[in-house]
Structures are given as C-alpha cells and as structure tokens.
Specification:
Blueprint (H helix, E strand, L loop, with lengths): L2 H8 L4 H28 L7 H20 L1 H9 L5 H34 L10 H28 L4 H30 L7 H22 L4 H50 L7
Helix pairs in contact: 1-4, 2-5, 2-8, 3-5, 3-6, 3-7, 4-5, 5-6, 7-9, 8-9
Protein name: PQ loop repeat protein
Main location: membrane
Keywords: Membrane, Transmembrane, Transmembrane helix
Length: 280
C-alpha cells in the first residue's frame, strides 16, 4: 500500500476506536492516582523494589523508541500533513497512549527518588538513598542513548527501522517480563505491601489486558512488539494481587488468633479473681 493510500485509509478514523483510546488514557491516569497518593501519604518509597523501578523505566524507554521508529508510525506522522486535525490525532493515538503510559510510570520514578531522600532509615531490602539517584542517572543516560541511536537509524538507514524497532520490542519485552519479579520478591520479603498500592494494581490489571487487546487490533500481528509486553505485565500484576490476598488472609488469621488469646487471658483473669469458696 502506497503512502497516499495509507493516508486515505487514515483520513476517516473510527470514532468508536478514537473514543475507546481516549477512555483508556483517562483510565490509565486514574489507575496511577492511588499509587501516587499512597507514596505521598506514607512519605516513603518502602516496598517499591529498586530493580522494579529501574527495569520498568528502561522498558519504558525501549517502548517509546520502539513505537517511534516503527514504519507505520512514520506513515501516521507523515499523513498529518495532508489529513485533518481529527484524523491526525486519531492516527497518533496509539503512539500517544504508549508515551502517556510511560510518563505515568516515570512519575513513580521521580517520587521514588524524592522520598528516598526523605527516609531516615534504609529499608529492609537494602536500598540506599544514593542508589535512587544512580537509578535516575542510568535511566536518563539510557534514554539519551536510545534516542540518539533512533535518530541515526531513521536518518541514515531508514530501511533498518523495522528491524531496529523489533530489537527494541524484544528488549522491552525482556525487561518488562522480569521487571515484576524483583517486586514480587521484595513484597514477599517485607511481608507487607508497604507503599505499593493494591487498589492501583486492581485498577491497572483490567486496563493492561484491555490496552493489550486495543494494541493488537491497532497494530496486528506485525506490530507484536508493541503489545506483547502488556500480556506479560498483566500476568505479573495478577501474581502481585494474589500475593496481597495471601497477606490479607494471613493478617486476618493472626488477628483472630490474637483476639482469642486476649479473650482467653481476660477470662482467666476473671477466674483468678473469683474466691475459691463462695459464701452461702
């Protein structure tokens, strides 16, 4: 299909898909609000794994680089010169969704760095305040490297854009699929969620699967590198929610045992205070 035919195809975007994409972006922001609020309220990043933050941020950089260098994205951006404003936004919504999602995660990165300075004691997982700044420096350097390489590929070897995008997609998938393993370990090691919001997880999981299906429909099998990562993320989010449920059941069980012991000791005290012989 020629560039002109592609632009004609994008000239009349589906209003239903447009509305659905906008709804997903709003939903995504709502998903992150409980996580932001929990970190700010506790004024601590305890419970958030350093590797989870690092790998998630690096994965996000790969995701942005992947979708920016995809040949289909180049066509979408090029068609904005000839198509209407509405058609242009509609064709770029997939790209905007990915960038917006990564931006939401980067807010957690910045909160993590900020509140690591506010914490008086290092958390049990061994995180140090200097480590948070190191994570930010690594992510910033990696983003600069990926951006520079992407510009070089698009300008000097545009024919390699699809291959380069696939490489970034594979890197993104690998990083995102292992990103949640350190978080699951940290949560299990601490024995509680800490600053990790289970409400945010419960909101994000259905979003993740809905968004992955939306990306499948938009980019198809050829654009597998865009959406396959969200399938892995959805599975790991289920795992964390299951861990939170186990902690809740455990804490309820401990509460019942503690309550029974308190009741039993109270009855014992009453029995001890009763006279051995009752007067007639």
């Amino acid at each position: 299909m020629s560039g002109l035919e592609e632009c004609r195809h994008l000239e009349k975007p589906s209003k239903v898909q447009f509305a659905g994409s906008c709804f997903l972006m709003v939903w995504l922001f709502v998903c992150y609000i409980p996580q932001y609020a929990r970190i700010v309220r506790r004024q601590s990043a305890e419970g958030l794994s350093t590797l989870y933050i690092l790998l998630g941020s690096l994965s996000g950089v790969c995701a942005i680089g992947n979708i920016l260098v995809l040949p289909s994205s180049a066509v979408d951006m090029g068609c904005c010169r000839v198509n209407s404003y509405f058609a242009c936004i509609g064709s770029l919504l997939g790209l905007m969704q990915v960038i917006f999602g990564i931006a939401c995660f980067w807010v957690i990165l910045f909160l993590y760095v900020y509140y690591s300075e506010e914490e008086g004691e290092d958390e049990k997982s061994g995180r140090r305040r200097s480590t948070a700044w190191m994570v930010l420096a690594v992510v910033g350097g990696f983003a600069l490297a990926v951006l520079s390489l992407s510009v070089m590929v698009l300008r000097q070897t545009p024919g390699m854009a699809q291959t380069y995008a696939d490489m970034l997609g594979i890197a993104m998938t690998c990083l995102a699929s292992v990103q949640w393993l350190p978080q699951v370990y940290t949560t299990w090691h601490l024995g509680h969620l800490g600053s990790l919001s289970v409400v945010a997880l419960c909101l994000q999981t259905p979003f993740t699967w809905t968004f992955s299906i939306n990306m499948m429909m938009r980019y198809g099998v050829e654009g597998w590198s865009v959406w396959v990562v969200y399938v892995f993320v959805g599975i790991m989010e289920w795992t964390l929610i299951g861990t939170a449920v186990l902690f809740h059941i455990r804490d309820r069980g401990r509460g019942r045992i503690s309550s029974r012991l308190s009741t039993g000791s109270g009855l014992g005290s009453v029995e001890e205070r009763r006279p051995l012989l009752s007067h007639a």
